[in-house]
Design a protein that fits this description.
Signal recognition particle alu RNA binding heterodimer, srp9/1; 2,3-Dihydroxybiphenyl 1,2-Dioxygenase, domain 1; four-stranded mixed beta sheet; about 40% strand; globular
């Protein structure tokens, strides 16, 4: 069994899908009426839907070392995105190290809290 998709509320679903493509490097699957979709992996898709009211949610992504470096470099080179070492401080420009995990948190344009995690072997 695996999770096939989850719906992510957004003020602008097309923009949200493009953001996840640009920043996280996810494959943009385009329009799946009434959603815009991105593929997280071979199974999981995020389906963005337009909503007037968006409640913040937390999405955590485990990535390879290479993916982590690419994402982190895109975040650092984007002056409109802050990052931090905890969900309560996503602006201190620090990363966390916990056991064999390294990561950081940042917000998407809808206020969802995204976490990028690299697991060290």
């Amino acid at each position: 069994m695996h999770l096939d998709h989850t719906v992510v509320p957004s003020h602008d679903s097309q923009h949200a899908a493009a953001f996840y493509e640009d920043i996280l490097g996810l494959e943009n699957l385009g329009y799946y009426s009434p959603f815009y979709a991105v593929a997280v992996d071979d199974y999981l898709k995020l389906l963005f839907i337009n909503k007037d009211q968006v409640d913040s949610r937390h999405y955590a992504f485990i990535v390879s070392e290479q993916e982590y470096e690419r994402i982190f470099n895109r975040i650092k080179s984007n002056p409109t995105i802050d990052f931090g070492d905890s969900p309560s401080d996503r602006h201190n420009k620090q990363i966390y190290h916990s056991d064999k995990r390294t990561g950081f948190y940042f917000d998407d344009d809808d206020g969802h809290i995204l976490e990028v995690i690299k697991i060290e072997h």
